[in-house]
Amino acid sequence: MTQMIDTHCHLNFDAFDANRDSIVDSAAQVGVTRIIIPAVDIETTQQALDLAQQYEGIFAAVGVHPNSTANFTDNILAHIEKQSYQPKVVAIGEIGLDYHWDKSPKEKQISSFEAQLALAAKRDLPVIIHNREASDDIIRILEQWVKDLPASLKDRPGVLHSFSAPPEIAERALSIGFYLGFTGPITFKKAEGLRQIARSMPLDKILVETDAPFLTPEPFRGKRPNKPEYIPHIVDRLAGLKNVTTDEMATITTENAIRLFNLPH
After folding, report:
1. To which H or E segment does residue 200 belong?
2. What are the tens digits of pLDDT across the range 133-190?
3. Any residues with CB less than 8 A from the CB of 247 and at least 6 apart, and which?
4. What span, in angstroms and rounded, lies between the C-alpha atoms of 20 and 81?
5. How far is the CA of 235 from the CAs of 5, 189, 259, 264, in angstroms?
6. What is the torsional sign of CA 263, 169, 140, 67?
7. What is the DSSP secondary structure assignment for residue 12, as one 8-state letter?
8. What phi and psi, each to the nearest 5 degrees, are found at residue 254?
């Protein structure tokens, strides 16, 4: 069985409290043997670290989501930095900008984003980027950030998670070394624009993720929660778009995740 990696799953969320062990087991049975849990705030950072200690195949990212940045402080940044030294931390994230919800002022989101990007460069860790209705500011900030990255991060600065921006944003992100993560919407009937972006992408920059418990793919769309065991449906859809076998796409996306997040083989 070809191994796969769910590079973005909120396994710590309460949607999984009742059956987390079985969720992990069911994923492994279909070949999804590794899962990366991104944090959204200080509390979920600790939860992700705890689960990474509990399960061999789980890894953590630490950081503060843009919707949680209203009260972001230097003390919070220092706490994230301290946590980033924990074993099995593979990224800073998820961080970024979200102009859809009015949960944090834009200026606060941007300053918090830039502070966490600086931390990622300092810690030699890639970033997991959340972008909602903020593509222009996101890509402008990232294009500036990559200019001063250490050599070890130049080819693996991070991923634009659950990519849904216009094609020109994909092109600009790829040109500065970023990976793009694809989630359940790649399987949706009306997502032809997103599929066209995936068709045009280089194979070595594609990641697969669930963003569980959200964004459940076809044929399970509309059902909650999404689960890591659904990753094969995303892999299969991408394989068809890139004219490779499902096993080949599983191998490619797994190798990409290993390379980006510096995971053990």
Report:
1. helix 192-200
2. 999 999 999 999 999 999 999 999 999 999 999 999 999 999 999 999 999 999 999 9
3. 2
4. 28
5. 10, 16, 18, 21
6. negative
7. T
8. -65, -45
Which of 3.10.20.280, 3.40.630.10, 3.30.110.70, 3.20.20.140 would CATH assign to domain 4-16+23-261?
A: 3.20.20.140
Torsion angles phi and psi, residue 177, rounded to 5: 95, 0
Judged against a pLDDT cut of 80, whether residue 224 lies above it is answered with no
What is the C-alpha separation between 116 and 119, in angstroms, rounded?
5
Q: CA 7 to CA 9: how far, in whole Å? A: 7
Longest CA–CA span in the chain (Å) reads 49
Q: What angle do CA 93, 28, 249 make, to 5 degrees?
A: 70
| Contacts of residue 66, Cβ cutoff 8 Å, sequence gap at least 6 | 95, 96, 97, 98, 104, 109, 112, 113, 130
Q: Which two tokens stand for residue 25?
A: 């087991």
Could you tell me the residue ranges of all domains in the chain? 4-16+23-261
pTM of the model: 0.97
pLDDT at 195 over 80: yes
* Strand ranges for 81-188 from DSSP E: 89-98, 127-132, 158-160, 179-182
Coil, strand or helix at 60 = strand
Collapsing DSSP to helix, strand or coil, 90 comes out as strand
Angle 106-123/74-83 helices, nearest 10 degrees? 30
Average pLDDT of the chain to the nearest whole number:
97
Question: Do 199 and 245 touch, CB atoms closer than 8 A?
Answer: no
Return the residue matching tokens 């992100």: 173
